[in-house]
Amino acid sequence: MSGSIEPIGPSMSQTHGNTHIRHFLVRLPRSMEEVWPAVAAAEGLSAWCTPVDVLEPRLDGTVALRDLGAGRVTAWDVDRVAEYTVEGGDRLRFHLERDGEDGSTLRFTHEYQGEGASEAEWRVRFERLIGYWGSAERGREQVP
Predict the structure, then answer these.
(1) CB 44 within 8 A of CB 52
(2) DSSP string of 80-122, one letter each residue
(3) Which of 20, 26, 88, 109 has the most beta carbons within 10 angstroms of its beta carbon?
(4) CB 132 within 8 A of CB 38
(5) Rounded Cα–Cα distance for residues 55 and 76 (Å)
(6) Tens of pLDDT along 35-51?
């Protein structure tokens, strides 16, 4: 990963009728295997995105994301793709790709109807994701 590349790229938005689609590209200084639990496990998502009440980590599993809604896991490719579709048709897709030897790139898509989280709100979440490993490591240091 190059140090001169911004970790959170500019978002791209599209609108088709009343469906809005927002895309982000986030470069992370961690391997895909390290990033996967942050997007595909209840503890990881809760730490940076939104509290997770239920997450069955498999295709067609149940998901309940407290601030975003409840629904199903609609795509699941271990270590690569996790997609959650919740009530109202909102869809969150996390697609991981390798980025050099030690990094990964998250291609994130949020598809929604009506009002969705703003670009600024997602940027704050992704900043928390980038800092996730530091805070997780500090938490382990405090455990006796």
Answers:
(1) no
(2) TEEEEEEGGGEEEEEEEEEETTTEEEEEEEEEEESS---HHHH
(3) 26
(4) yes
(5) 12
(6) 999 999 999 999 999 99
